[in-house]
Write a structure and sequence with these properties.
Length: 91
């Protein structure tokens, strides 16, 4: 039950097209992380990007680290496996 609640929160966060694009851009970065300066071109203002990134962090999908003036984002370590388990069929 707890895993279903967590997965539901993740899918709810990813249900927004801007958040899905941001998450996808971060997940597809070759080095596994993306600077906010690399992912801000999703068709909305910078404050709106920041809002959506915050929502993705709150849902447990992303982690962030400030380095100087930039913030770098990564997909949280267990997220992809957790999302995959949501679709696995039991018995």
């Amino acid at each position: 039950m707890e895993e279903a609640d967590r997965a539901s929160a993740m899918f709810k966060a990813l249900g927004d097209p801007i958040r899905l694009r941001l998450f996808s851009q971060i997940a597809s970065h070759a080095d596994g992380e993306a600077c906010v300066c690399d992912i801000s071109d999703v068709g909305v203002s910078q404050p709106t990007v920041s809002h959506h990134l915050k929502k993705l962090r709150e849902a447990g999908l992303l982690t962030s680290e400030r380095r100087g003036t930039w913030v770098y984002y990564r997909v949280a370590p267990s997220v992809m496996a957790s999302l995959a388990r949501s679709f696995s069929v039991s018995g």
